[in-house]
Amino acid sequence: MNNKDKQKVTTKDIKAALHTSSPIMVTFIVLGIGYGILMQEHGFGPVWSVLSSIIIYSGTVQFVSVAFLSTGSVIMAGITALMISARHIFFSISMIGRYRNEGKKKWYLYYALCDETYAMLSKDDGPDGVNTSAYRLLVTLFDQISWVFGAFLGGCLGSILNFDSTGIDFAMTALFTTVFLQQWIDAKNHVPAILGLAATFICLLIFGTDFFLIPAMIIIIGVLTLARKKIEAPGGEDDE
Q: Can you tell me the distance from the alpha carbon of 114 to that of 92, in angstroms, rounded to the nearest whole number?
């Protein structure tokens, strides 16, 4: 495929990307609304919600950082964001092979690689008959646009509506649980999932709730890298 073919986006590519992204888009809009309302409750208007969704673009970090930012704890918010988002480094590393021929687009693809987009794009190269490069870009773009739109809409609604926002920040936990369950159902080999749960639980006991995430990610990536051939062997996750 030459460069012109890679840059060309067809209606089929758009439909395929929308089909893949639509469940995430709906979820992101709903969660984004919750985030926008929460921001408004802490004194940040729609513009702040939109800017944070474009610059940070990490639902978990954004929800967690609201309380820190409202109290002026910018440094603590930054440290917490770094710890929580460290896993995205490993996501990006695992996608280097897939994105190596994407040209300048790869920088946006790395930047906007959230958990849900990673789950959608790490499974295969896309539906048959579509421009893979355009498909990856569109899925990534649709996901982020829906999150930004939801955050903006939530910020606007939060300035109009008046209600108790307690519990809204639990939305990201619910989303991650749903994604995990769907991946468990789709996968044939549950070794990576079990490893993730075990490593996380052990690190939680050893390091506590504030510092368990990075050690857990290091263990998970290390073990999966060393055991990759065994996991992908016949009978493994990629076995048909």
A: 10
Shared domain for 144 and 208, answered yes or no, is no
Each of the 240 residues of the chain gets a pLDDT tens digit; together they read 545 555 678 889 999 999 999 989 998 998 899 889 888 888 888 998 999 889 888 877 788 777 677 666 667 667 767 766 766 777 777 788 888 888 889 999 998 888 888 888 876 567 888 888 899 999 999 999 999 999 999 989 887 877 666 666 566 666 667 767 776 777 777 887 888 889 889 988 998 876 777 788 788 878 877 877 776 665 544 443
For residues 144 and 216, state if they share a domain.
no
21 and 108, same domain (yes or no): yes
Residue 89 CA to its chain's centroid (Å):
12
Look at residue 172 and tell me if it is in a domain. no
Please identify which residue in the block is written with the tokens 């460069």. Answer: 3
Nearest CA to 28 among 114, 87, 95?
114
Whether 119 and 218 share a structural domain: no
Same domain for 37 and 135? yes
Distance CA 104, CA 6 (A): 12
pTM of the entire predicted model: 0.68
Q: What is the dihedral of CA 134, 139, 141, 144, to 10 degrees?
A: -170
Q: Are the beta carbons of 102 and 136 closer than 8 angstroms?
A: yes
* The Cα angle at residue 215 between residues 212 and 220, in degrees rounded to 5: 115
The domain of 66 spans: 3-165
Distance in angstroms (rounded) separating the CA atoms of residues 133 and 65: 34
Tally of structural domains, the chain: 2
